[in-house]
Amino acid sequence: MGHRRTDSGRRYTCAHLICAYLLTNNITRAVVTARDIAQFHHLSWKSSRSISAMLDFLYTNRIRETRFGFYLMGTAPFKKTDYPHHYTIELIDQARGIL
Fold first, then answer.
1. Cis amide bond preceding 77, omega within 30
2. Whole-model pTM?
């Protein structure tokens, strides 16, 4: 997909940003792009690439673990291009204690 590989420590940081986005907006399921999450936290475009790489990693490897605080339900390309993807993310109950 052309993304850089994201190490495990960075994955947890990205997962925390995603959970914070969902909890702050008081939603349990959202269809968002990595860019939406990065803009919400006032981060650079490089951060959105890291978030996107982490979400792609979870989706490609079909990882559904509670340690990240959310489940990735699916993904869909935006319009006819491959980037950015819309990700369907659902917060799990244990994630409410993260923040």
1. no
2. 0.79
Beta pairing partners, 88: 31, 74
Residue 91 DSSP label:
E
Per-residue confidence band for 45, with pLDDT thresholds at 50, 70 and 90: confident
Q: CA 72, CA 25: separation in Å to the nearest integer?
A: 18
Q: Judge whether 38 and 87 are in contact, CB under 8 Å.
A: no
H/E element, 35 = helix 34-40
Q: Select from 62, 88, 64 the least CA-distant residue to 76.
A: 88
Residue partners of 33: CB distance under 8 A and separation at least 6: 48, 52, 78, 84, 85, 86, 87
Determine the Cα–Cα distance for residues 13 and 53; give it in Å rounded to an integer: 12
